[in-house]
Amino acid sequence: MGMQKPGTALTDVQMRVKALASVLAEKGMVKQETLDAIVDQYETKIGPHCGAQVVARAWTDPAFKKLLLENGSAAVDSMGFGGLEGAHLTVRENTPAIHNMVVCTLCSCYPWATLGLPPVWYKSAPYRSRAVRDPRGLLKEFGVELGSDVEVRVWDSNADMRYLVLPMRPAGTDKLSAKQLAALVTRDSMIGTAQLAPYRR
Questions:
Q1: Of 50, 73, 109, 189, which residue is the catalytic one?
Q2: Lowest CB count within 10 Å: 68, 87, 185, 195, which one?
Q3: Sign of the C-alpha dihedral, residues 193, 55, 116, 200?
Q4: Active-site choice (50, 73, 104, 157)
């Protein structure tokens, strides 16, 4: 189930998943091949690393960025990261004057293809209600302090429309490759509950 790099220890979550997968396979409830396919899907084909690649390309390719902001679904699909949850994707760009944040007030609609599994807090009632009632206060709790001159826009995802935030590119990254840029992008920055840290060489 997924290759582990030599000399690296499994995290607590990885150990639990491995144990659960072993029990399910031993009891014949699911085939090992099916489990391997699911793991491969989340390790290589969907997840925040995919969204990070989309962001990095938007930072370096003006034509792609234009398409991403005009038709997020088409842009993401052109990179092979589409799918059911990405069928109606809208991308909102953060700027020095505007900070975007995504929530799903009804349930937990989320662009799985580009961000992977939603974090627990995204699905929680406190996040869902406070994102609408007090977005600045909520962002502050996430460590995002915005000036009074920055407008906060909250986008409510639903079954028909999912949102992704295009974070601002950190200063001093002009010479970085797309792969290096993607490594700077976090899941939370694509939800809008984090800002990317200044680049340190």
A1: 109
A2: 87
A3: negative
A4: 104
Quick check: is 50 catalytic? no
For range 32-57, the mean pLDDT? 74
The catalytic residue among 107, 124, 129, 177 is 107
From the candidates 22, 73, 78, 108, which is the catalytic residue?
A: 108
Together in a domain, 112 and 54: yes
CB-neighbour burial class of residue 78 (10 A; exposed 0-12, middle 13-18, buried 19+)? middle
What's the pLDDT at 47?
Answer: 82
1 inside domain: no
- For residue 153, give its domain range: 48-191
| pLDDT tens-place string over residues 170-182 | 999 999 999 999 9
Per the annotation, the verdict on 104 as an active-site residue is yes
**Other beta carbons within 10 Å of 149:** 7
Looking up tokens 């052109």, which residue turns up? 78
Number of domains in the chain: 2
Active site residue 108: yes
